[in-house]
Design a protein that fits this description.
Length: 348
């Protein structure tokens, strides 16, 4: 009876483990879902999740038919004692036509609505659309608004109710722009421009991220999209197109930061001005534009909230925040870091 008790104990342990796994799984079902395709807030997003559900239910139907057939065959044709082997069948025309036609029909039922959504998006009138060039970099996002002359990074700002046309491309490897609650997903490829057209309907903050493996910090290539009312969007544009404060208006700490920013370091490729742009000071293009760094919600491609501590941690050692970061450790002193944080945060 020893054995029985042992297997009973094992079954008990398995039951505990299974319940723990189930609980853990269910805990994952608790909101909020900033990146869920299922809570779309635009017509394009709803069309896309509609397609998902349609394909899902076709999958459920096929699964059910296959399982019922399987169980029926298993029971009906199971081996019985003293029964001879059944005669093999070669070719059953009716069956073969049926299982060729049925999947073909299902594929047509899936293809027609899918193509309709593709055409609908391609046919959206973009005459009045806000054009935003979105450029993927390892591992951050650059946004250019030619209409306003704005260049910014990682926070995408959009007005409510006006169609936007994102022109997606890459500066290096293939990335994929994924903004699930607004616009689905589209590849970003060097030397090619892909379009994504949608109209943001609701004001709010929406999360996105790169959805195509693009190197060490792919998982840290995130972004936020902010949809504003038309008036709030106009004030954002006004803020972003304003010139940075003149050096004379900076306080001592900020001035120390500006000096550290301007300094030519050794090697020279470690100088901030070699890689970053701030109007009137530098025009580097290897890193994100820092003109209005103080107004951004995150640091380093959506990895950290843009707080003083986080910005300092980033400047102290970028690779510690973001493995593989293409911003080098520039060997700043603590006093330079404090100055730079104050200076960069004063740029609003
Ligand atoms: C060799 C080029 C290079 C140099 C030199 C450099 N950076 Fe960077 N910097 C980058 C790159 C690339 C990124 C984007 C990294 C990422 O998010 O993966 C970046 C990101 C940043 C960010 C975050 C921007 C954002 O929107 O998230 C700040 C702030 C910054 N750098 C400040 C500085 C300062 C200050 C210096 C000088 C002490 C400096 N950088 C020197 C390339 C450089
Ligand atoms: Cu990427």
């Amino acid at each position: 009876m020893n054995l029985d008790r042992r297997s009973f104990r094992r079954a008990n342990q398995l039951a505990v483990l299974a319940s723990a796994a189930l609980l853990l799984g269910l805990a994952g079902c608790q909101g909020p879902f900033p990146q869920s395709t299922f809570s779309a807030t635009t017509e394009l997003g709803e069309d896309l999740s509609g397609l998902f559900w349609m394909i899902f239910w076709w999958g459920v139907a096929v699964f059910a038919v296959v399982q019922v057939g399987l169980i029926y065959v298993m029971i009906r044709f199971r081996a019985r004692p003293d029964q001879p082997d059944p005669a093999p069948i070669h070719g059953h025309t009716a069956l073969e036509i049926a299982w060729t036609l049925a999947p073909a029909m299902i594929i047509v039922f899936i293809a027609v609505p899918t193509i309709q959504v593709i055409w609908k998006e391609a046919g959206t009138d973009t005459a009045n659309a806000l054009q935003v060039q979105v450029i993927g970099h390892q591992w951050w996002w650059e946004y250019r608004y030619p209409e306003y002359g704005i260049v910014t990074a990682n926070d995408l700002h959009l007005p409510q109710g006006r169609p936007v046309e994102l022109q997606l491309t890459s500066a290096d490897v293939i990335h994929s722009f994924w903004l699930p609650r607004l616009a689905g997903k589209r590849d970003m490829i060097l030397g090619r421009t892909n379009r994504l057209v949608f109209t943001p309907d609701s004001v709010g903050e929406f999360w996105g991220q790169c959805a195509e493996y693009c190197g060490t910090s792919h998982a840290n290539m995130r972004f936020r999209a902010f949809v504003h009312t038309a008036a709030d969007f106009d004030s954002w544009v006004a803020e972003q197109t304003s010139a940075p404060a003149a050096a004379e208006t900076l306080n001592d700490l900020e001035r120390r930061g500006l000096a550290a920013y301007r300094e030519v370091r050794t090697p020279a490729s470690n100088s901030c001005i070699a890689c970053h742009a701030i109007q009137g000071i530098s025009a580097g293009v290897l890193g994100p534009d820092l003109n209005h760094m103080g107004s951004r919600s995150t640091v380093a491609g959506g990895t950290l909230e843009n707080t003083a501590d986080n910005l300092a941690a980033w400047l102290r050692d970028p690779a510690a925040v973001k493995p593989g970061s293409l911003m080098p450790n520039t060997g700043l002193t603590e006093s330079e870091i404090a100055g730079l944080v104050a200076y960069l945060h004063s740029l609003r």
